[in-house]
Amino acid sequence: MTAILSYAAFTETPEGGNPAGVVLDASALNDTDMLKIAADLGYSETAFVVARADAANEYDVRYFAPEAEVPFCGHATIATGVALAERDGAGTLVFHTKAGTVPVHTEGVTGGITATLTSVEPHTEDVPHDVLDNALDALGWDTSELDETLPPKIAYAGARHLILAAATRERLADLDYDFEALKQLMLDLDLITVDLVYREDETTFHARNPFPIGGVVEDPATGAAAAAFGNYLREVGAVTAPATVTVHQGVDMGRPSLLTITIDSERPEIRVSGRAVAM
Q: When you count CB atoms within 10 A of the terminal residue's CB, does the N or C end of the chain come out lower?
């Protein structure tokens, strides 16, 4: 029988954060099995882990949303890192994902373990005007409601995300979008989420992440988007590296989450840290 664990990531309490399924031994499962488990759980993602026989503390990890496999998932990575640390002790792990190799460092004791993932090499790209117009139409946003200091971009750090910055917290709080229209746009552009953000101060942000391609209206905490966003901030000159940025997500859903982003000045990869607790 396959043991399926449930963790809330980027939180210190089971009532907060983003729930993730974790299967620490998926060696007997095929793609159909994994998709069914993810769909039955209904979390935004479930991680499926297979230990590598030829390397200690190295694992092949795949991520499934209720409707599809995704190349990388940050919150399920944090959850899996904590689950392995609780089972085997804290330390450094290496996850081999479809997006690439992701080191995960864990520290602390059970009930208080923090996991830090290091992203694959990130990049950003410009958003064509027609894509931006279609995204704003699907969201019900107007160009006048965007923060002019944070330009729209598509950002990648293991998965692709469209980043749009709201000029006010009120605009971010009022999320009521066309699910099918945004889903189709995201499928056309190979986007995993749309990362909607609001800047509170120089290093504090609020975020919401629609995730219709996974069959989920909104993600309470999105580690992959946070990694992509960290590099975005560096590339558009919104922060001066080295920098540490905090992102509050899930607040408007009643599942408050806290993600910490570390942006280096000497290496391109972004680190994202957070707690996770068993549910």
A: N
